[in-house]
# Entry
Amino acid sequence: MIICDSCNREISENAYVCDFCGKVTIAGKKMGLGPKDYSILLGIFGLLISLFIPLITWGLSGVGYKQAKENSNNKGLAINTVAIIISIISMIYYLYQYFKR
Ligand SMILES: [Zn+2]
# Structure
């Protein structure tokens, strides 16, 4: 038995959906029943452009971070967090270069 993270009642670990509140379980998310999760893809794109267009990374990885959180996707959370941090650093660098002149 596992505990539903939405209503905290006991449900079967094989259930894809909670019997009580209807929320998709971790097993269900693994079967692709959960909310859309492009977080890894968004994180990779975010990382690739974070050094060049940090503002777009904020948008992409912001959405990626949200999707990863909804799906308890730790890899997605990690990659989007890194992308956001790099984009903040490169944004500061661009601003520094701009005001230095
Ligand atoms: Zn539930």
